[in-house]
Design a protein that fits this description.
Length: 503
């Protein structure tokens, strides 16, 4: 897929000029449609260009994971990591924090590309009506995804539905979060109507739209239900829970393209990535890409340096070649909080590695945590065929198990909800969830379950925010200090400086 992206992008480079270069001066990735959008291939290339932002280093291939996981209880970073990352870890982030700035900037670059497609892919000679509808629907899905990220990070945002092609177009004030959600909902409902359910790896389909809609409604419902500041407009939480359940039900019960994977490790098997049962939508990369963003270094960010060893053998026999950066550390308190029998710890997190002997007179060396291995690390993103520092790593955006938990949380402690949660717990080697829980108790247990099941995938910050649990969990249970930005980050300084409509 990334090779296809690269070949198509080469053909449009002169038209879509260097959106990823010098973005301090160009926060929207200015593009021009002049002499473009004339053929069906132009339309397809523009859509590919819209997708390609997802795998950039500053978005889903690295910085998104830092922005969503490091503030939580599961991950910290190495001592000599950038100050911006340590600010996030301590909830002391400033308005010029580069990681947070990237969450704003790259979402808007993506939005601008989508707006270009939506405005121009109409009535192109030779482009059939069905394909035109599909291209427009995919662009609307992507635009909704970017805006959903923005409101979850920042709250009120600048609402842009037209292409920004010059700095003269950038002056626009913040819109209420409610208006952003209205656009997200509208885009997704229109996309659902014009897409099919067939799988297309690395691209959206009708099921992905329904999955995202379920998450959007759940975020509004739980935020309104728990009194998250800024969601007073959301209104009837019960009605929103019902909508979340409706769309999650379409994914969990009413389609056959994706399903629950009973093997806890199989969803992360790079060799079977194109047919993985649970991966509804991913940001895809390939180890044979030419530049980072086409390939990923995210797995190496988790892998230990291990005294500079070139190769590591994991307890399951997997060989990791090329060594690691040891950038992310799993927090000790989080690691110890797993139930003893939980396979999400024993099989999905590694605390022992073997460094194979390099000569006949040497012996294999075992490194353990705690001890000479500084931190345990997850196996979710590993690529056993990595080439040097280049890996194939599909950052999950929408996963079937996530939507199972969305459904269960939305409907509360029904028989179906318990069955779904217990399927996940059984896969993890755990006993069934305690029966007879009340609605609030049940939903609280599901937030805990999401913390174990979806760890390191980019959900935790948003789950704690939407359930008004940032302080209760991070300070109350894990002893972190939340200084600022608990529920919303400040609008990045670059936007304030370049947009005169924002005070």
């Amino acid at each position: 897929m990334k090779r296809i992206f690269r070949n198509i992008l080469l053909a449009v480079t002169l038209t879509f000029s260097a959106a990823s270069c010098s973005l301090r001066e160009d926060p929207y990735g200015f593009i021009s449609e002049r002499n473009f959008y004339e053929t069906p291939q132009d339309a397809r290339s523009a859509l590919v260009y819209a997708y390609s932002i997802l795998s950039d280093i500053e978005y889903y291939s690295r910085h998104y994971i830092i922005a969503t996981e490091v503030p939580g209880e599961a991950l910290t970073i190495k001592p000599d990591a950038g100050a911006d990352q340590h600010e996030l870890d301590r909830f002391e982030q400033q308005s010029n924090n580069q990681i947070i700035t990237d969450m704003w900037r790259y979402a808007y670059i993506g939005i601008n590309r989508c707006n270009s497609v939506i405005a121009n892919v109409k009535d192109i000679p030779g482009l059939g009506e069905e394909e035109e509808k599909s291209i427009l629907a995919e662009a609307k899905f992507l635009r909704a995804l970017h805006y959903f990220n923005l409101v979850r990070f920042f709250g009120d945002v600048v609402l842009r539905t037209e292409q920004v092609s010059s700095k003269d177009d950038t002056a626009k004030g913040l819109s209420p979060m409610s208006e952003a959600y209205e656009l997200i909902e509208q885009d997704l409902l229109e996309a659902e109507a014009d897409l099919r359910a067939e799988r297309s790896f690395g691209r959206t389909n009708q099921v992905a739209v329904q999955a995202l809609l379920s998450k959007v409604y759940l975020h509004m419902a739980s935020s309104a239900d728990t009194g998250v500041p800024g969601y007073e407009w959301a209104g009837n939480a019960a009605a929103l829970y019902q909508k979340a359940a409706e769309y999650a039900s379409k994914v969990v019960f009413e389609q056959s393209v994706y399903e629950f994977e009973y093997d806890i490790q199989e969803s992360w098997n790079v060799a079977n990535r194109f047919s993985a049962k649970e991966l509804i939508m991913v940001s895809a990369t390939s180890r044979d890409g030419q530049v980072e963003g086409e390939y990923s270094k995210l797995p190496i960010m988790f892998t230990p340096y291990a005294d500079g060893a070139k190769d590591l053998i994991l307890p399951n026999g997997m060989m990791i070649r090329g060594g690691g950066f040891e950038h992310f550390f799993i927090e000790d308190a989080y690691f110890k909080a797993f139930e003893t029998a939980d396979k999400r710890k024993s099989e999905m997190i590694v605390d022992t590695v073997v460094i194979p002997a390099e000569g006949d007179d040497e012996e294999d060396r075992i490194m353990k945590y705690p001890g000479d291995l500084q931190s345990p690390f997850p196996t979710k993103f590993l690529d056993p065929e990595q080439s040097g520092a280049q890996t194939t790593c599909d950052t999950p955006i929408l996963r079937f198990t996530d939507i199972m938990l969305v459904y269960a949380e939305a409907v509360g402690p029904t028989a179906d909800a318990y069955r779904l949660v217990n399927m996940i717990r059984t896969r993890a080697g755990l006993a069934d969830l305690k029966p007879g829980l009340g609605v609030a108790e049940f939903r609280n247990e599901l937030i805990r379950e999401r913390g174990w099941e979806l760890a390191f995938e980019g959900h935790r910050l948003f789950d704690l925010r939407r359930t008004h649990n940032v302080e209760a969990v991070l300070e109350g249970e894990y002893g972190k200090t939340v200084t600022r930005g608990a529920y919303y980050y400040d609008i990045p300084q670059i936007e304030v400086d370049t947009n005169p409509e924002i005070n």
